[in-house]
User: Fold these one by one.
Assistant:
Number 1:
Amino acid sequence: MGIKVMVTGGSGQVGSELVRSLLNIGGIDDVYAPSSAEVDLTARESVLGAVTSMKPDWIFHVGAWTQVDSCEDNPKRAFAVNGLGSRFIVQGADIVGARVCYLSTDYVFDGASDRPYLEWDPVGPRTVYGASKLAGEKEMRTQDLIVRTSWVMGEYGHNMAKTLIRLAKAGGGCRFVDDQIGTPTVVSDLVKALVELFMDSHSGIFHVSNSGETSWFQVARFVFELLGEDPDRITPVSSSEMGGYKAPRPKYSVLDNFALRGSGINALLPWQESLSGLVLKLSAGS
């Protein structure tokens, strides 16, 4: 019999592409990606019912409440979805003997570092979202896989790549912060690494992001220039000037993919190369 896989958040930005990838892998017989209407992560009976009915070998737990500012308004919901939901997934995995891959975030760090964060660096989230995702990490077992990523952009869902394409085509000027430093991660690269880590039976914490570091201002200029638009239409501003956010954004959240490289897995492509492919594909279809 082949492998059976369950994917939470299967209709989201990462989940959609992950499901598509898993369906093309030999040896995987069944991929079950329930919607949030089918499986309520905040309800133990709902989660355990879904897991014990399917009896998956693997669970990719990428479902989460990721609206950073909304989490500040409703911390109880954030912890119910991201923290307790992860506990229920692990309880279900214990019952059926499944391994879990949990997708986490750069927001578990405080953003005050002056160098890329290693997998073993102390965490210190400054937002409800980050704290709730860290709560989910703490629910994982030693045999499980935790993958932290950052600045995710892909073909599905809402993301900055799609926003920049829309702004570029709309004309006029726009402002982007130049004092938030991180690394864009293209979903297709992230998914490839997730599957490779799981298929090779890795466990523990891994940072997975594209290579390099940049600011949102530089990303915006890069995309405009790629689309043949004038990058000088973009004005750099500080985070304090931009304002409008309830949750503070990390000043520096570059993830060092040390464990990935040390485990013999190829580093992800430079962010410019992967983002170029994504933007050109999205703009051709828009």
Number 2:
Amino acid sequence: MKRLLNCTSSEMASMTKEELKQSIMACEGRVIMTETVVAVQPLLGDLTNAELAVSFGSDMILLNVFDCDNPKINGLPETDEPVKLLKKLVGRPVGCNLEPIDEEAELMESRREISHGRHATKETFIKAKELGFDFICLTGNPGTGVSNASIEKAIKLAKEYFGGMIIAGKMHSSGIDEPLVDLPSIERFIDAGADIILMPAVYTVPGLSEQTVMEACQLIKSKGALSLSSIGTSQEGSDEDTIRMIALTNKRCGIDIQHIGDAGWCGIALPENIMALSIAIRGKRWTYHTIASSVNR
């Protein structure tokens, strides 16, 4: 199995779930995932934010605010198969957020209601599979009310009905006051079927120490799963020095995949911050290799 760094687009497209997971693991902490909002006008207008992200060094694309009942990706031409077309254009693994809403949880803020097609349910898992997603991310946007308990339930359902890679965890509170990096919850997530455990990156949420993330990474690795750190607190719109500091700190903790969020401008991180993140954890050689590699290879 080739590591993702070395793979061409055609090799990525032909990977099974298990092969993709192994390919990421082999990169030793040098994989970049960029999240983009699909429901707004893209930064470049007639090109998707996903295409822009890949051109600045992203290896994986995570679509936010994607509605499985009304599948639309702004920036694409008219098509009945938006996910498959996007995957062809970017030549990278593509996934989407689905949110396991906890209707009984007490929130710290007013709850933000979302459409049914964004909820993590049996129906949306089946549709996500039919649409062609390589992975799904079970997490929560601000104020939607996603809890660790509801994530665990959703993992079990996704394991049965989706079939691709499952990412699970919280980037921030999602409106609920509970531990964001909780070792017992992480164990339950992996036992339930999660392939990748998502955590906030060190320096993105108050009080999250490097030691806590390092211990979580060690646990995740011991159980055969992958770890993902998330910049999901609008710091994706910060300065490049901040991004580099976050990148190197979380690599030191043992993170396998580094995620950068969508809150720069028009539903994407500042493109230069995607590149800064990439260069910080794998240097200019592999960053330029990723940028230059044709999707036709």
Number 3:
Amino acid sequence: MRRHWSLFTTASRYALIGHARNRFAMLLVVLYIPVWIALAYVTIPDRPAPFRLRATGEVLTPPGNHLTQITGALNAVTLIAGFMMFAATFTGGAFDRRLAMAGYPRHHLVLAKLSALTLVCAAVAAYATAAAGFAWSPRQPLVLAAALFCAALTYGALGVVFGSVLRREVEGMFAILMISIIDVALQNPLSSSGSDSAVVRFLPSYGAVQASMSAAFSSAPAAQGLAIQSLWLMGAALAGFMVFRRRTRDALPPAVRPDGRRDLRGPTSVL
């Protein structure tokens, strides 16, 4: 048990160090989130923006600048989490493969990345919630933080997928940027007349958008939105695990059987 804990803590430490060295991501967290939310509050008119919340059927009429702050917070946390996990996976791929080749258990590496992702997303979601509620108070701030947290986790897992399958850094950055922008923009009633369309239910952050809107402007339960987002999160996490496992498995050297021939199934000391 002590050996497993030691392996996990070592891998987690390296994962957190990798995130901390990403100074651009740290700058985005510190500056981009509050600046984007503040600009939305100052520049967008505060006229009521009525829309129907699909998750509850309510017709909400929040001020337009408050509404844009929530969608801006969602856009910010998904971009940052996706960027950070993509960068960590893309730049640390060779290191992960060397660890797997040396016999480091892959499930410890996966759990370490998941733990680092969870800590990062929790911090980013709490910071974005505080920034969004600086000028006004959301109805359910804890639920809003949970919705932002789930959205960040989902895009963090997608960042792992892109970091594992794409070969160029610019490709991954562009993919995360465009998916996040399209995802959130289509669900913003101020920027899209199709925000009430049934198509938006298939977007990656649909559940988080529904839960965050309910949490910010209503007292109604947001459990349905969080449950929907959890399904996206589990799917993205499973995809991230599969591609990570495939990438490190392909790097493992073939084992040698007692008769001297190579066993192409690889060593059995790792997942």
